[in-house]
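Appendix B, Record 12. Input sequence as logged:
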Amino acid sequence: MVKFLLQISAELKNLTDLQPQDGCDDPDYSYFFKLRCEWCGELSPRETFVSLNETVPLPARNKRTANVIRKRTAKVIRRRTANVIQKCKLCERVGMILMHPGLGMPLTQAASDARQFVPVMIFDFRGFVPVDSVFVGGWRAESLSGINFEHIDLSARKFVEYDVEYPVMISNLQAAGGWSSLLSVMQDVILESGISACLRENLQLRVVPVEEGKDAGVSSSRPSQTKALPIRLLQLFALFLVFCITFSVISIYTIRHFGIIGVMTTVAASFQPCLEEPRGLDRWIKPPSSVKHTMNDEELLWRASFTPRIKKYPFERVPKIAFMFLTKGPLPLAPLWERFLKGHEGLYSVYVHSLPSFQPHFNPSSVFYGRHIPSQVAEWGRMSMCDAERRLLANALLDISNERFILLSESCIPLYNFSVIYQYLMKSKYSYVGAFDDPGPYGRGRYNDNMAPEVSISKWRKGSQWFEVNRKLAITIVEDTKFYPKFKEFCRPACYVDEHYFPTMLTIEAGNSLANRSITWVDWSRGGPHPATFGRADITEEFLKRIFERQRCTYNDRNSTVCFLFGRKFAPSAVEPLLHLAPKFLGF
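Logged structural output:
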């Protein structure tokens, strides 16, 4: 029998709190080990995986076998299951692995700087000895700016990504195991958590046998506990009898002096009638009181696709703009948006889709407070990104007053004041989705013949991810079941589905409704796979003037010099100079 404490160490750059996806006790995370048989020394041909949510009953082929196994395990686990039961292929002896959660810690930046190992999980190997551990995907960490990185793949023992402000990295990842330091680790956890002395003593009693490599024996206090149990039951039973007698006396006295009718009247009066849901028009036209709900994506898209057959509204409808923010986490430019939206309540709605693990902290007076919708992980270039965009549209469609829907990122800014943008969109005959036919390798070269006949290569389109659509096209997007399966199955990297799905589908379904251009300005002049990002040093009067110069486009089939209503990408450091220059150049 081997008690094994798995510990990790790594060099973290601009990251902290490295741990499995749902914490060190993540029930779904799988640990992989190379094992050697304790009896014959045979090395397992491949790794064995073990996780908390995978349990199997202890084998009991006959009474004698069952008794032996229970004697060896009941003292430690108090259960009839193990996390893994495996037979050696050479000697055919059965071994097992048991997991003991509750003592894992995230690897922090401070521990990384000190080159310390931190505990992750305790394993009880019976019949096997671990010789190596293998890292896989399913980890998460938090950047120093508060952005969470999820589903990190550590199979290569390294990770490199880019935060909004700086690069983040995991390197020199190491695993260590043993049992000599187990007691000190548990004592550190006890001291840090500040738990009671009684519980501390109990934990120490359980740790000592682990240190010595013995089974954790039953506490010597069991006989006294057994004796105390009947006394406790008798006390509870006596208390119950006193309560029953008291209640009976009060009931008899009440009925004798006030009559049974008076008692029944009092009881009946305590019940309130069940109030039905209002059946008036308000239940259909009022927006949901909260963006939080329990609908899954299928239910949400179905509900959002509802549309009245009669186009004339039987009430005074004030159309609104739905600002939909697709983010990883924080909204560093929120102060600029707060100023932009101030004073225009009732003409806009705000929806935010972030990583599900992100916890927003906005003041209750903020326009972003309570506006984070139920979200899922969205990966760039994959269908999960389009799923997030459809999720935003569907939530916004639940408010029947929302008429125009604009997709934005955390790095977007408005280029005009609210009144200009509102009038521009509400008076527009078109929706602003870029959809052009690119004959090159990054356009038609991404087309897959398996998408026919629903999508032919002549209808294959490419465009910017950042779109603006009216309510009719928003419903077209969320109710699509014809094109979605084709793009999900056959448009995978290096076919970046977020650049092709909506442009192609809307070209086929409603091509005459598209302006075939974006209203979000970006700068590709620096080259590379991503547009330029602008920080504090870039935000000058000359820079803002340059954005508005030489704009040429059509608006409602007429030439116009107002083409871009929003701009990206702006770094968090740009917010201060933008707030300073906004009154003069942006009009708010």
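The chain has two domains: 2-212, 288-511.
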